[in-house]
Amino acid sequence: MAGKRDFYEVLGVARGASANEIKKAFRQQAMKFHPDKNPDDKEAEARFKEVAEAYEILGDDQKRQMYDRFGHDGLRGAGFNTGFQNQEEIFSHFSDIFGDLFGLGGGGGGRRRGPRRGPDLEYPLTIEFLEAAKGCEKEIQVPKHAICQQCDGNGAAKGSQPQVCATCRGAGEVVQAQMFLRIRTTCPSCGGRGKVIRDPCGGCEGSGRTRVSEKLKVTIPGGIDDGMQLRLQGKGDAGDTGAPPGDLYITIRVAEHEIFGRDGNNVLCQVPISYATACLGGEILVPTIDGEESLAVEGGTPSGKVFTLRDKGIPSLNGRGRGDQHVQVVVAVPKNMSPKEEELVRQLAAFQEAKVADRSIWKEFLNRWTS
């Protein structure tokens, strides 16, 4: 993604800008570089796409957080392809905003409604902690709508063709005059398609789409976290004939691990050590996401102390470095001791002049209470 400008610079806002400020800036920039105001201007067309790309990221809280942390490389590492193929895809993606700007559902300026892009889909995918940390490949089945093979998506039965809508004459919109106002609305006869089906296809009942289940292989980048999304461009629902399909957003859920926790790119774990090791020191083995590592514990280590293993944490999504692992050692106290162990501990307590309970008296009390 070398050469891409900073998205905040593209929209002309500060990094701490609010969501409303970002949306307002996008509106202003979209108006300035809109193709209807800049016909046959390749530079304005490029700026229009750049502005739309910037708003797609900064207008979404999750994508914005990822961009703020990892930049363009982080978006690429998470599977986001933020570019748009053409202007029509931009108009479709931000149809609500352009509708507000120009009073239309399309791009504005009397623009004829074209084939509609397919809807986006979301697929929840649960993976294990180590799979999220190290990366993996998953195979999923995605239920979706695809172009009907019998009619090639036009919705008409074999041997017939869709007819131009008589109400809107193929525009997909109608104009209603109210006093001095002219209001454009979606054509009620064709639903905005510009055409009507007289003899519907038996395979899709005139919709042009059928329900399928597509098998996909998904590459999960190492370092992905719970709640992040991967974008698979063009893997969503099919659009109208001649329009691109929507995108598939895979929402990642990371299952809890019995040993490891996570704080950003740092791994957290708790390791029990013996009282003797805490007092005298020694070498212990610590689990990490890459296997066991040796850790030197110095004598006199208090229970709860945290050691840090540098660069043993989660790799960054942008591929630059990785976090640390923080190991908290906790002195393990045995619940059941052999007579010999108890004798030795009592000798130590006597040497340290510590006041300890007489277990024989406690046992006698329990026997009396339960008898």
What does this 3D model show about the protein?
The protein is built from ten helices and 15 strands. The radius of gyration is 32 Å and the shape is elongated. Among the domains are: 103 residues, Helix Hairpins, CATH 1.10.287; 110 residues, Urease metallochaperone UreE, N-terminal domain (HSP40/DNAj peptide-binding domain, Sandwich), CATH 2.60.260. It has 371 residues and is of the alpha+beta class. About 3% of the residues have low confidence. A four-stranded mixed β-sheet has the order 10-11-15-14. A three-stranded mixed β-sheet has the order 1-9-8. The N and C termini lie far apart (79 Å). Helices cover 29% and strands 25% of the residues.
Report the major sheet: 4 strands, mixed
| Distance from first to last alpha carbon | 79 Å
Computed structural class: alpha+beta
**Within the CATH hierarchy, at the fold level, what is the topology of the domain at 261-370?**
HSP40/DNAj peptide-binding domain
Determine the CATH superfamily of the domain at 261-370.
Urease metallochaperone UreE, N-terminal domain
Round the mean pLDDT to the nearest integer and report it: 83
Question: Helix proportion of residues, in percent?
Answer: 25-40%
Evaluate the radius of gyration: 32 Å
> How is the largest sheet built, in terms of strand order?
10-11-15-14
The run of helices and strands is: HHHHHHEHEEEEEEEEEEHEEEEHH
- The helix count comes to 10
Q: What percent strand?
A: 25-35%
CATH level 1 name of the domain at 261-370: Mainly Beta
Count of DSSP E strands? 15
